[in-house]
Design brief:
- By secondary structure, this protein is an alpha/beta fold.
- Helix content is about 40%, strand content about 15%.
- Strands 4-3-5-2-6-7-1-8 form an eight-stranded mixed sheet, with helices on both faces. The protein has a six-stranded parallel sheet with strand order 9-16-13-10-12-11, with helices on both faces.
- Strand 17 and strand 18 (about 605-610) form a beta hairpin.
- It is globular.
- The structure holds cytidine-5'-diphosphate and magnesium ion.
- Magnesium ion binds near residues 45, 46 and 136.
- It catalyses: ATP + H2O = ADP + phosphate + H(+).
Length: about 700
């Protein structure tokens, strides 16, 4: 195949380990359907391979699609590749992440999150627009990547599916930075493995004394990390520092502290390496604005040491050149299913040993380096697992199971999973889908389920939105769904005076809607800002994140477009409702949040009604936190687990509104769903089951009534 016009502009890409294998890699992709590519992080897999395939002419048959588990990685890598190929981002090279599509008709190299590709599979199971799909960062084992792996494998074992809508065969490349390649190859019909040899330099690792086994839940590590980073700055030779923390607020705090302390350094006396004359501190986390992300990759000015304070994203997804020192907090923020509350909760947990090795390795890419672990050797031995558990085995599967069902895969238990989730997680997902009326008792997708799958939102929120649309009040729910899909809009400054001021403003915003409903506050903030003449200064005055609100405006438009499309269907549900607006609003919310209902228990403690019966408290950020009125029943958006379980984004409801929905929470026993999951139910079994269930339901309804 001949070379096309856009050649890499950056000559330094020729120095990457992958460069020598260009021709062989192209040949390997040409010769096989599936190919596993492995190589050290930073060897050039993500940025170079798609360009090689483009140059080799693969894009003549369709786009080259590259998936990433993280949105920041998809965006920054696309930026870099657009630069290297000397084209405008969004033209030949583009990206797509949830609610942000930066591609056009001409896009041939498309970076996207794995979630976006999964949505595309729903619309076009044969992926007919693509010539090559590259699943990247497979070692991260994100839920969506794991599902895509299974789907692509499935497609090829079923030739009619694989070729549907296609005139040429699809190539699939699976890229991973770690050693699980044998397992991957075995999974993909023993496909070839291409290993890019790379040189790694030794990294000297030391343990600290700050984090001991009993400190698992402590956040004191932020201070320690700052101290160690400053020590490195003053007593080590030139070379950049990469600090690993867990999330945005922590990172911002660490950067503030670092900045403050670095100010007082006297470079004549305090610093060992006299070529070092300053410290440049840069945060790196998921929801950061893109122009700031770009600065991370630029080399610092001469004499200046760069210190990047990042989340786990810098462990494998992004490679920053020039890093010589690592400061590792030993923690990561992870979404885990919390069996105590029966929900997925973002938790700060110790990283695995393999993750710690990966973090350390970032210091040894181009020369030897050092890694300072702030935790003790004992912490390493006792608290850190060997490997990270794949997401599919630790989070809610509700949304992906609905996707699989919509793709016609009914036997969700025997679906080819690279690592099988526990059966009870699959059954739990089926149960929730059944509660939301997305599937029927036979496990088949309902009309409502077909509508629900179209929205990139949590099924509960989608259910509430669809309910609102069916009674003609989507104007109330669209903004709320959008506001709950962006980062936190309320700014809470660090210093006490400003904090007081911000809290006061936020309370005033809540009071505008009666101060009793956090969902209504979100709606009101959205509307007030949108109708303001100068929305950015309105935000500034009210301590609201303007950037987050701008995203919310765009998300709302996109959700509205999806809804409008669905409303054209003849079978879109229509209901009538009489009652006032506040009641209507809250009743629509109940349709999606009846799984998150809590009832007042003793004092200000509430008890959830989902069978877990957890004792929960209203979070201080809620406008209901300080209310003196007696609340009886409430619904909530999510929970935060610390030493207590807090519910956030809360609103009071009346028992009558959920009375008919609550029994559904106890209607089916997950284990009875296991036969449904396999699509083996005979009519006779179904009848027996239904009779038994009806009797049980009768009993339970009366129990709830007594409550
Ligand atoms: O995918 P893999 O880890 O093998 O490497 P890569 O992400 O393709 O990175 C190759 C090189 O590109 C590294 O030296 C990165 O620092 C550089 N890069 C960059 O400078 N800016 C980006 N936005 C992405 C990568
Ligand atoms: Mg990569």
């Amino acid at each position: 195949m001949s070379e096309t016009s856009r050649k890499p502009k950056y000559s330094d890409s020729k120095h990457l380990p992958i460069y020598r294998y260009k021709a062989k890699l192209i040949q390997a992709v040409e010769e096989s359907t599936f190919l596993v590519v492995t190589g050290e992080t930073g060897s050039g897999k993500t940025t170079q391979l798609p360009q090689y395939l483009y140059e080799a002419g693969f894009s003549r048959n369709g786009k080259i699609g590259v998936t990433q588990p993280r949105r920041v990685a998809a965006i920054t890598v696309a930026q870099r590749v657009a630069q290297e190929m000397d084209c405008t981002l969004g033209k030949e090279v583009g990206y797509q992440v949830r609610f942000d599509d930066c591609t056009c008709q001409d896009t041939v190299v498309k970076y996207m999150t794995d979630g976006c590709l999964l949505r595309e599979v729903l619309a076009d199971p044969g992926l007919s627009q693509y010539s090559v799909i590259i699943l990247d960062e497979v070692h991260e084992r994100s839920l969506n990547t794991d599902i895509l792996l299974g789907l692509l494998k499935n497609n090829f074992s079923n030739p009619s599916k694989a070729t549907k809508g296609r005139s040429f065969p699809l190539k699939v490349v699976v890229m991973s930075a770690t050693l699980e390649t044998d397992k991957l190859s075995a999974f993909l019909s023993c496909c070839p493995v291409f290993a890019i040899p790379g040189r790694v330099f030794p990294v000297e690792c030391t343990f600290g004394s700050a984090v001991k086994p009993k400190d698992v839940e402590s956040t004191a590590y932020v201070k320690e990390v700052v101290k160690v980073a400053l020590d490195v700055h003053t007593s080590e030779l030139a070379g950049d520092i990469l600090v690993f923390l867990t999330g945005q607020s922590e990172i911002e705090r660490a950067c503030d502290l670092l900045f403050e302390k670095a100010e007082s350094i006297d470079y004549r006396y305090d610093v060992l390496d006299q070529t070092v004359e300053g410290l440049l501190i840069l945060p790196l986390y998921g929801s950061m604005p893109t122009d700031q992300q770009r600065r991370i990759f630029q080399p610092p000015p001469p004499g200046i040491r760069k210190c990047v304070v990042a989340t786990n994203i810098a462990a494998t997804s992004l490679t920053i050149n020039g890093i010589k020192y690592i400061v590792d907090s030993g923690f990561v923020k992870q979404l885990n299913h919390n069996s105590r509350v029966g929900m997925d909760v973002l938790e700060v947990v110790p990283i695995s040993k393999s993750e710690a090795e990966q973090r350390a390795g970032r210091a040894g890419r181009t020369s030897s380096g050092k890694c300072f672990r702030i935790y003790t050797k004992e912490f390493w031995e006792k608290c850190m697992p060997e490997y990270t558990v794949p997401e599919i085995q630790r989070t809610s599967l509700t949304a992906v199971i609905l996707t699989l069902k919509c793709l016609g895969i009914h036997d969700v238990i025997r679906f080819p999973y690279l690592d099988r989730p526990e059966e009870r997680f699959i059954l739990e997902a089926l149960k929730q889908l059944y509660q939301f009326d997305a599937i029927d008792r036979r496990g088949r997708v309902t009309k409502l389920g077909e509508l629900m799958v179209e929205f990139p939102l949590h099924p509960g929120l989608t259910r509430a939105l669809l309910k609102a649309a069916s009674v003609g009040c989507e104007e109330l729910l669209l903004p709320v769904a959008a506001m709950l899909s962006v980062e936190n809009i309320f700014i809470r400054p660090g210093d006490p005076d400003n904090q007081k001021e911000a809290d006061k403003k936020h309370r005033a915003l809540a009071a505008k809607t009666g101060g009793m409903n956090d969902f209504a506050t979100l709606l009101s903030v959205f509307q007030s800002c949108k109708s303001s003449d100068r929305p950015s200064s309105w935000c500034k005055d009210n301590w609201i994140h303007w950037r987050a609100l701008k995203s919310a405006f765009s998300v709302e438009t996109q959700l509205r477009e999806i809804l409008l499309r669905l409303q054209q269907r003849k079978d879109f549900p229509v209901e009538t409702f009489d009652g006032n607006k506040s009641e209507l609003f809250r009743r629509c919310l109940c349709a999606g949040y009846f799984t998150n209902v809590a009832r007042s228990s003793v004092g200000k403690v509430f008890c959830t009604m989902d069978g877990h019966g957890s004792m929960v408290h209203i979070h201080p950020s809620s406008s209901l936190f300080e209310q003196e009125v007696d609340l009886n029943w409430v619904i909530f958006h999510d929970v935060l687990v610390t030493s207590r379980i807090y519910i956030r984004t809360v609103c009071p409801i009346r028992y009558e509104w959920v009375k008919d929905l609550l029994p559904k929470l106890h209607e089916v026993d997950v284990y009875e769903l296991s036969s449904v999951a396999r699509e083996e139910v005979t009519d006779e079994e179904m009848m027996k089951w239904e009779t038994r269930e009806a009797a049980k339901r009768q009993q339970e309804v009366s129990t709830v009534d007594v409550v």
